[in-house]
Amino acid sequence: MEKVVAGIDIGGTFTKLGIVDQEGKVYAETSISTDTHKEIGTYLEHLAGAIRNLLKEQQGKRRADALRFVIYMSIQQSLN
């Protein structure tokens, strides 16, 4: 079974998530809206749900117990 990580790119409009292996192969991906949440708690709940759904898709195929989170925050929008 491959070891995988969850990559999370938090942008100003969308948050993109993916399950990838050490070589960068993408096994699953999705995105959620970043800027429509009025409260950070609601956003984090939505983000956690999206991560859980991606992991369910990979259950039995990948080593989810070895999952680590790599978070990249995009600040490009705030620079414009």
In a few lines, what is going on in this structure?
The chain is an alpha/beta fold and 80 residues long. Helices cover 29% and strands 40% of the residues.
Features:
elongated; 80 residues; alpha/beta; 5-stranded mixed beta sheet; Nucleotidyltransferase, domain 5; 5 strands; disordered C terminus; 29% helix
Q: Which regions have little confidence, pLDDT < 50, spanning 5+ residues?
A: 65-80
The topology string of helices and strands comes to: EEEHEEH
Cα-atom Rg, whole angstroms? 13 Å
> What is the CATH C-level name?
Alpha Beta
Question: Would you report the number of β strands?
Answer: 5
Assembly of the depicted chains: single chain
Architecture, according to CATH?
Answer: 2-Layer Sandwich
- Strand-residue proportion: 35-45%
Specify the biggest β-sheet. Answer: 5 strands, mixed
Let me know the average pLDDT.
76
The SS-based structural class is alpha/beta
Query: CATH topology, anyone?
Result: Nucleotidyltransferase, domain 5
* Count of spatially separate domains: 1
How would you sum up the global shape?
A: elongated
Distance between the termini: 43 Å
Count of separate DSSP helical elements: 2
Share in helix: 25-40%
CATH superfamily: ATPase, nucleotide binding domain
